[in-house]
Backbone:
């Protein structure tokens, strides 16, 4: 039976051990894992608007681990596994649904790239296999293998661990799990400044008054640069809008998530039966939440090339989120030049799938002071050390 | 309507005709050449508000225009130069 999510609201205290800026998936997951794994509950999550109202409520809910660099595969595979157990752990129905993910390739070179990706994935524990067009047709009978004549499907990666979950439910379950153990969640509380003394952070200024704390985690998504500039350093982040949209309901027979590596678009079916589509980010950096007609036009055109049945559907909703894009398309987690000020950013268009693993790793980092093995490659100083983890091809739509 | 970019030569045209060109803003106090390169490549101001930008009219006159855009609202401010 469905259980109600119960959150308790508190007045902000004057002081906490840890303040987490940003009540999205990553912020709430870190609070949740701090409370459950490390017993640290004197924690406040500060959210400017309402929890899960930023990119955590605007993404396309895909969970997968078919990445292109070893460290990333291991990290996202951990996340896939944590998602599988999250319903049992939080005792909440997250609508987690294993679906399988199909990455279509169009042409011999693309086939080779996908074949290599499958080999690398299997080596590091992610379950990807290469499929021939006839096998793809069996998985997705609706597909046009000729790709409208211009983009013939020559093969594809089938990533069996691909899944979806309801994003709001994930946020609420994590919020409730943390909240019931004593973590305070303050909505409509905007951080307006950071208090830094002698190179270490000692508190935050908010529009509800100052809060002193031992450590700060910045999990502010697209708005991370505003906070890091308060702390006095720049981060390798550009904020780009990303749009997605859904159609009206279609018979619930469309099983896997389908993406095309040449057409740069992806399609899945939501639990309600809506067909959910998305494409790449807007090219110019912007913080605007405005959606535009051009994306619908170009993305629909590309989707219809491989899935012509969708031409009879109508668009129901269309929305935009602002993504914190890192230059190497890998996340940035860990310590910063300011002591006790941690960041989790660079989640760009791949943040939702990493929520549990990112939260778990950051909770361990904050509790122990040691960068956990899984995120050792994703530190902020990798850019200075020339150790970037270039993985653009794994963003799916870039 | 999608963003319209005022080209210096062709007037207002849809954003899809343009290539976005960033103008790197390396702080003056950074003087070490390696540090300057790092700033150019990786450490961005990521301004939320008005910033100067260059736009290349790829599917048009193939020339650069310089303008100020408000990134918070994704709106061009003033005229191109």
Residues:
């Amino acid at each position: 039976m469905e259980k109600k999510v119960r959150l308790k609201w508190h007045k902000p205290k004057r002081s906490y051990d840890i303040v987490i800026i940003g009540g999205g998936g990553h912020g709430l997951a870190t609070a949740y894992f701090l409370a459950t794994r490390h017993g640290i509950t004197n924690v406040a999550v500060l959210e400017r608007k309402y929890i899960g109202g930023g990119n955590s409520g605007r993404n396309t809910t895909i969970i997968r681990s078919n990445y292109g660099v070893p460290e990333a595969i291991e990290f996202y595979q951990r996340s896939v596994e944590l998602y599988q157990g999250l319903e049992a752990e939080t005792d909440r129905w997250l609508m987690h649904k294993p679906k399988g993910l199909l990455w279509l390739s169009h042409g011999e070179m693309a086939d080779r790239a996908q074949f290599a990706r499958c080999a690398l994935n299997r080596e590091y524990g992610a379950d990807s296999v290469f499929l021939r067009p006839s096998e793809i047709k069996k998985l997705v009978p609706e597909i046009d293998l000729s790709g409208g004549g211009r983009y013939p499907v020559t093969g594809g990666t089938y990533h069996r661990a691909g899944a979806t979950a309801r994003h709001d439910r994930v946020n609420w379950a994590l919020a409730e799990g943390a909240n019931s153990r004593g973590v305070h969640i303050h909505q409509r509380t905007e951080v307006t400044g950071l208090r830094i003394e002698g190179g270490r952070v000692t508190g935050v200024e908010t529009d509800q008054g100052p809060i002193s704390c031992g450590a700060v985690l910045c999990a502010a998504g697209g708005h991370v640069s505003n906070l890091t500039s308060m702390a006095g350093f720049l981060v390798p982040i550009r904020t780009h809008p990303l749009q997605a949209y859904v159609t009206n309901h279609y018979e619930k027979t469309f099983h896997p998530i389908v993406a095309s590596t040449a057409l740069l678009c992806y399609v899945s079916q939501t639990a309600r039966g809506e067909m959910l589509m998305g494409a790449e980010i807007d090219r110019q950096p912007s913080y605007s939440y405005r959606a535009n007609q051009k994306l619908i036009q170009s993305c629909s055109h590309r989707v219809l090339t491989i899935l012509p049945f969708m031409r009879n559907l109508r668009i129901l909703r269309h929305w935009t989120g602002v993504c914190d894009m890192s230059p190497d398309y890998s996340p940035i987690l860990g310590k910063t030049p300011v002591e006790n000020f941690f960041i989790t950013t660079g989640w760009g268009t791949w943040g939702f799938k990493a929520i549990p693993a990112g939260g778990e790793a950051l909770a361990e980092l904050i509790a122990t002071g040691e960068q956990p093995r899984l995120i050792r490659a994703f530190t902020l100083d990798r850019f200075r050390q020339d150790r970037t983890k270039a993985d653009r091809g794994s963003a799916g739509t870039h | 309507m999608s963003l319209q970019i005022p080209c210096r030569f062709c007037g207002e045209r849809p954003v899809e005709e343009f290539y976005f060109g960033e103008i790197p803003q390396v702080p003056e106090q950074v003087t070490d050449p390696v540090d300057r390169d790092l700033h150019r490549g990786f450490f961005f101001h990521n301004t939320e508000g008005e910033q100067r930008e260059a736009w290349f009219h790829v599917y048009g006159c193939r020339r650069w225009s310089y303008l100020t855009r408000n990134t918070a609202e994704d709106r061009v401010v003033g005229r191109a130069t």
